[in-house]
Amino acid sequence: MNPDLSNFFQQRANYFHQQVQVFQKQDNNYSWARTVFFVVALILVIWFANERDAIYTALTFLVALPIFIFLVKTHQKIIAQKKHFQFLKLINEKEIKRLEGKFDEFENDGAEFFDETHSYSADLDIFGKNSLFQYLTHTVTPLGKQVLADWLSHSADAQEIRSRQEAVRELGQKIDFLQNFEASGLAFKQEALEVEKFWAWVVKDNQLTNNQIFKLISLVLPFLFVSTLLIIAIFDLPLLWIALPFLLNVFVLGKVSEWVKNTLAEVSPLLTTVQAVGKLIGLIEQEEFESEKNKQIKNSLRHDKILVSKAIKKLSSLIANLEFRQNPYFFAFINIPLLWDLHFLIRLESWKKAYQKEAKQWFEAVAALEALNSLACFHILHPNYAFPSIEEKQFLYKAKNLGHPLIHFSKRVSNDFSLADRGTIHIITGSNMSGKSTFLRTVGINAVLALAGAPVCANEMQICVLQTFTSMRTHDSLSESVSSFYAELKRIRLLLDKLNHEPPMLFLLDEILKGTNSEDRNKGAKGLIRQLHKSKLSGLVSTHDLALGELAKENPAYINNYSFNSELIDNQLHFPYQLSEGVCQSFNASVLMKMIGIEIE
């Protein structure tokens, strides 16, 4: 753990904790002030009412009401600010846990994206407990999680990768923006952010805005009602005269009531989503960016001359105003006279008509920035990690001091690694527990990071755009009557189906054909390696079978032997986890068996 970084995040956490305490005191003060003011105002209103003093009763009510509303709104802002600092404190504490390697307790692990049939994600721990996603993610919206998952599941093209790298470097210098952005999203995380439902509502056809009659009615009938009411008051006419405009309004509201109920059922659950995305968009609008991708994201959040955050705030207000109809007193005294339902239904549909072509890209822009934020926070945590050079070559993967990013630095062992030219295959032999499987995962997970636009756990790296394919964790299936050996064959069949695909393939095969006898394994493994070489696929094959090392003699330019070895020191096995050239010279199975009590002659 980098002590300087740990201290940096601890200092930030301490500062935000102090701010929480400051706002907690204000929260308590305003809570008492609201209560006391309300009780005093209520006593005065009741007192003046009992004294039959209508002027002072009305005056007290009119003065007290706006003051009370001001106290409530100010108190709500204080509570929101307190929660914001609580989230900022939590974010910095989680960064310390990441540095300590304790990220496995984070709730957001991306388990919903786990796919056993994916080319590499299951073998490389991309999703789920103790996964790369769990370590990386700072996403707060469902779409943000999806975008990050997509980036970790599919290689981008060279131009996009370079663009992301530039954006991540820039965001890495904006820690306050990153953390405020995440904290603002976390304020809504307890609620379900219904992004897909929002899109479904936005693209749904309007029913009223294209009907000029309803537009005319929404203006004329409220005017008629209010005018009639004024005439009655001015000329002291019977109140019964209001019956006709009242009944007309009730009739109109009855005609649109089904539309209003359906619309309210659709938009009410979306209010939290709208408020959350509006807050995040507002932060993006306020920030200045230099990198092309970040500027592109910000520029996509524009609509003519109006800020998108204001447009979304307007939508939030429209939804909230439509919800007022659910209050029976409001319905009787406001909705019916003013045709409130019809008026705000038309305004909601007008909003959709104005913004429906762009609304989806707003959400996508926020999600893209969430994914970039996750990579940028990873960059901040590991400033010594290198951004790989993306090469325009047929095949290249070269790294210096390549390590596994999910292994704590105190236990991590790094190795130099190079795999160049299509059809190049490294056969890696080694003893049990010597590090073969971990090394294959190290190569794979850093390729995933590199091609997502993130820095990699290496001092330097050059890599071309490639596809990664792994066969490491194959499992039998009782329900499908599939043995582990046949499961591995099915997995290899998927690799063979990709022989002629572009871009080039990096394959990682661990303990190849381990589920059959040594003779068949040797024949099958040699045949597969020759086939992969001839098909210009490049990758690593780990095995206990030393006989596979003979393949290097057939084509020494493209098939190479590497190994991981163990040492027996004072009757204790020692694993240096260092990649060496040549076939493994030390095996430890018999030693391990003796250590657990198996008698070996």
Automatic annotation (TrEMBL):
<dbReference type="GO" id="GO:0005524">
    <property type="term" value="F:ATP binding"/>
</dbReference>
<protein>
    <submittedName>
        <fullName>DNA mismatch repair ATPase MutS</fullName>
    </submittedName>
</protein>
<dbReference type="GO" id="GO:0030983">
    <property type="term" value="F:mismatched DNA binding"/>
</dbReference>
<feature type="transmembrane region" description="Helical">
    <location>
        <begin position="31"/>
        <end position="49"/>
    </location>
</feature>
<dbReference type="InterPro" id="IPR027417">
    <property type="entry name" value="P-loop_NTPase"/>
</dbReference>
<keyword id="KW-0238">DNA-binding</keyword>
<dbReference type="GO" id="GO:0140664">
    <property type="term" value="F:ATP-dependent DNA damage sensor activity"/>
</dbReference>
<dbReference type="GO" id="GO:0006298">
    <property type="term" value="P:mismatch repair"/>
</dbReference>
<keyword id="KW-0067">ATP-binding</keyword>
<dbReference type="InterPro" id="IPR045076">
    <property type="entry name" value="MutS"/>
</dbReference>
<dbReference type="InterPro" id="IPR007696">
    <property type="entry name" value="DNA_mismatch_repair_MutS_core"/>
</dbReference>
<keyword id="KW-0547">Nucleotide-binding</keyword>
<keyword id="KW-0472">Membrane</keyword>
<dbReference type="Pfam" id="PF05192">
    <property type="entry name" value="MutS_III"/>
</dbReference>
<keyword id="KW-0812">Transmembrane</keyword>
<dbReference type="InterPro" id="IPR036187">
    <property type="entry name" value="DNA_mismatch_repair_MutS_sf"/>
</dbReference>
<feature type="domain" description="DNA mismatch repair proteins mutS family">
    <location>
        <begin position="423"/>
        <end position="601"/>
    </location>
</feature>
<dbReference type="InterPro" id="IPR000432">
    <property type="entry name" value="DNA_mismatch_repair_MutS_C"/>
</dbReference>
<keyword id="KW-1133">Transmembrane helix</keyword>
<feature type="transmembrane region" description="Helical">
    <location>
        <begin position="55"/>
        <end position="72"/>
    </location>
</feature>
<dbReference type="GO" id="GO:0005829">
    <property type="term" value="C:cytosol"/>
</dbReference>
<dbReference type="Pfam" id="PF00488">
    <property type="entry name" value="MutS_V"/>
</dbReference>
<feature type="transmembrane region" description="Helical">
    <location>
        <begin position="216"/>
        <end position="244"/>
    </location>
</feature>
